[in-house]
Design goal:
Length: 419
């Protein structure tokens, strides 16, 4: 449960703005002129924020107030949040009411979620629409829906809320700030090796941090990322780069391999001591394939592989990105697929699936982190990203090999293993 000291709804936006103004302007008098408050009002606002946080933000001296590290951390986040909100007349109560209605889809559901009465919610949204000079909701039959300006406002408010939460957490630091939280969007290629390794190491070092993993495709995760519902997502980078509001940063490169079940007609006579040479594309095109749906980088590479050889891409009766489903279908049929070696290391070592070889180079993919543009990670997020970089730089040892070596001991060099 979130501490009241970490909840933006516990604070007055004007008071938080006063803290930021004093940090940025260098004095109470200069800040008062900027935010149109009297100097005593600014001083009182700072005192109220300090009382709620139970953290000293400024050092009081005869020649003025010197911001301490918690104030500097909070001020940067507050300024960004206020820029997203778009008006210093907006209150946290109005933000909370609007986001409750936006997320719930009705005044009744928002009232149940917040404990506020429906008349209070109606009044808050009406006042907010007047302040921002834009219609936020409209009637749709017996229900309501966000207008286009309302949708943009909801996104901006969600991002502002995330900034305020981060600022309060950073200001509290180790002073009973409660558990930090990291929300990660995980696309398929991140789940095989790098993300699990980083999660295990990070949890061992930071057991107090709550981590939430949301699995999905790029299309399913991009909008929650834009809304501020998650911190970043990990998976195959998009080419061309996504819209300007998102940024990508590479972690490692991955080369897909063609896969079939052991005993597949194309697997006869394949070498076991090295990566085989890929059969002809004409032979591969004779079999059905299971690959991700259109829009995924792997699907684009799959189609380009055949088209570059003057062949029509083979039939894809099943579109799927789930490794578990793909594995089961391959083991029971003559389907073929393309996957990362990391995703099927255990299946290959167990002898269930075999590599048919590496396709041409256009199926090399870059796996990376996608964030919102100008997103600034907090201490917990930065520490986790450092673990991701560390995991991405290390060679992969499959769990199957590790378990076998722990039980039987590592294989002697050149030793033969009987089936």
């Amino acid at each position: 449960m979130e501490s009241p000291r970490q909840s933006p709804w516990s604070f007055n936006l004007r008071h938080l703005g006063a803290v930021a103004a004093v940090v940025n302007r260098g004095s109470v008098s200069a800040a008062a002129g900027t935010i149109h408050l009297t100097q005593p009002a600014v001083t009182q606002a700072i005192a109220r924020v300090e009382a709620l946080l139970a953290v000293q933000l400024f050092e009081r001296r005869t020649d003025g107030m010197t911001p301490l590290p918690p104030a500097r951390a909070l001020a940067a986040r507050v300024e960004h949040a206020l820029g997203l909100i778009g008006s210093r007349r907006v209150t946290t109560a109005q933000m909370r009411a609007f986001l409750a209605v936006a997320d719930s889809g009705s005044y009744a559901a928002a009232a149940a979620r917040t404990g506020l009465s429906q008349p209070t919610l109606h009044r808050a949204l009406g006042d907010l629409a007047l302040i921002l000079r834009r219609p936020l909701v409209e009637r749709r039959g017996r229900g309501i829906a966000l207008t286009e300006p309302g949708k943009r406002t909801a996104r901006a408010f969600r991002l502002a809320r995330a900034e305020l939460e981060a600022g309060l957490t950073e200001a509290l630091g180790g002073a009973d700030s409660g558990p930090a939280r990291i929300t990660i969007g995980a696309m398929p290629l991140s789940r095989a090796r790098v993300l699990p390794m980083a999660l295990a190491r990070f949890n061992a070092a930071h057991p107090e941090v709550e981590i939430i993993i949301a699995e999905g495709s790029y299309g399913e995760l991009a909008e929650p990322l834009r809304d501020g519902s998650m911190d970043f997502m990990i998976g195959a980078m998009r080419e061309p780069a996504p819209a300007p509001d998102l940024e990508q940063r590479a972690l490692f490169s991955d080369q897909a391999i063609a896969l079939a079940r052991a005993g597949h007609p194309l697997a006869a006579g394949l070498p076991r001591d090295r990566e085989p040479t890929l059969p002809s594309l004409a032979d591969l095109a004779r079999y059905p394939w299971i690959v991700p749906s259109s829009g995924a980088p792997l699907r684009a590479g799959f189609e380009a592989m055949f088209k570059s050889a003057g062949l029509n891409p083979p039939i894809v009766p099943i579109e799927c990105g789930s490794v578990m489903i793909i594995r089961e279908i391959l083991m029971q049929t003559d389907f073929l697929t393309l996957l990362s070696p990391d995703q099927v290391a255990v299946e290959r070592e167990a002898g269930w699936l075999v590599s048919l070889g590496r396709p041409p180079g256009q199926l090399a993919r870059t796996i990376g982190i996608t964030t919102r543009a100008q997103w600034r990670p907090g201490p917990a997020q930065a520490a986790f990203i450092a673990e991701l970089n560390r995991a991405a730089a290390e060679p992969f040892a499959s769990p199957y090999s590790m378990a076998r070596d722990q039980i039987c001991g590592p294989r002697a060099a050149g030793a033969k293993v009987q089936a």
